[in-house]
């Protein structure tokens, strides 16, 4: 087998092992150079899951900010396993914040969205000390994290309840996210969202509005976990409302590919990092 095919197969198998190993491979690829973590396990609330890490380039000053929400069906994940995402956006000239949030089954909707809003409040109040510009806060999310980021960007109640002006979020880049998936037929979505008495309020598409912040919706066309129609439907609804939106469809890419592509060894899979960073940089004004 040609060497390049062997390498491709190896990288694919490593990626399939999950974010913790993916994070380790990314760290090895960096060889200690470039931007890194500048704050760890900072509390933004009283619960043990309400902690965040901050990543920044060296000599950061008044840089745009990315708050990254990882996926895991609202029931799994940890900020440490997604250090590669924080390093990726810091390497693109952002101060990147990766928060944990409370998970199912300990909580159900809307607790994890409320945690996201509380994390945004912390970023607004504190990111300047790490070189970030509190007037240029953006959000990125993958899968369930994209659902959280989308609701924060579109449903103004969550930021307002946290004491944050909804206009604080200047733009968002949402990867492989579920935005329009009623009825709740999947056991994981039922566990996370099925308690809410008004199901439409769990769906980001319900809150498409003309004054929404600019959103990039990126997804793999071969995603069988969260179907591409979620991104397509939300993009169409935002466009019809007159809101700024951009849709990126990656041919042959699956559900995890856009987030895997944030890690240094996998950036050739799909251009999710370059696409999202360029979009956020352009709109974080």
TrEMBL record:
Domain of life of the organism encoding this protein: Bacteria
PANTHER family for the chain: AB HYDROLASE SUPERFAMILY PROTEIN C4A8.06C, CARBOXYLESTERASE
One MF annotation (Gene Ontology) recorded for this entry: hydrolase activity
Residues covered by the BD-FAE-like domain: 52-238
Keywords in alphabetical order: Hydrolase, Signal
Protein name, entry field: Alpha/beta hydrolase
Segments passing through the bilayer: none
Organism: Sphingomonas lenta
Cleaved signal peptide residues: 1-22
Pfam family, one: BD-FAE
Classification of source organism: Bacteria, Pseudomonadati, Pseudomonadota, Alphaproteobacteria, Sphingomonadales
């Amino acid at each position: 087998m040609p060497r390049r095919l062997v390498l491709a197969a190896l990288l694919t198998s490593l990626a399939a092992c999950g974010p913790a190993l993916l994070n380790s491979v990314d760290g090895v690829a960096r060889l200690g150079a470039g931007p890194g973590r500048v704050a760890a396990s900072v509390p933004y609330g009283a619960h043990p899951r309400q902690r965040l890490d901050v990543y920044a380039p060296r000599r950061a000053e008044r840089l745009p900010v990315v708050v990254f929400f990882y996926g895991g069906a609202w029931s799994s994940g940890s900020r440490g396993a997604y250090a590669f995402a924080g390093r990726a956006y810091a390497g693109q000239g952002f101060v990147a914040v990766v928060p944990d949030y409370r998970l199912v089954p300990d909580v159900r909707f809307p607790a994890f969205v409320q945690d996201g809003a509380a994390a945004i409040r912390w970023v607004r109040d504190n990111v300047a000390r790490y070189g970030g510009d509190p007037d240029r806060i953006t959000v990125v999310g993958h899968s369930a994290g994209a659902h959280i980021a989308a609701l924060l960007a579109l449903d103004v109640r969550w930021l307002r309840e946290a004491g944050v002006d909804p206009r604080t979020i200047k733009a968002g880049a949402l990867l492989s996210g579920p935005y329009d998936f009623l009825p709740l037929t999947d056991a994981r979505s039922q566990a996370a969202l099925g308690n809410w008495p008004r199901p439409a309020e769990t769906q980001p598409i319900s809150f498409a509005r003309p004054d929404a912040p600019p959103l990039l919706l990126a997804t793999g066309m071969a995603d069988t976990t969260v179907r591409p129609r979620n991104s397509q439907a939300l993009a169409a609804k935002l466009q019809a409302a007159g809101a700024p939106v951009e849709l990126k469809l990656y041919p042959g890419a699956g559900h995890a590919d856009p987030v895997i592509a944030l890690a240094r060894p996998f950036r050739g899979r799909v251009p999710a990092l370059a696409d999202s960073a360029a979009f956020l940089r352009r709109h974080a004004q």
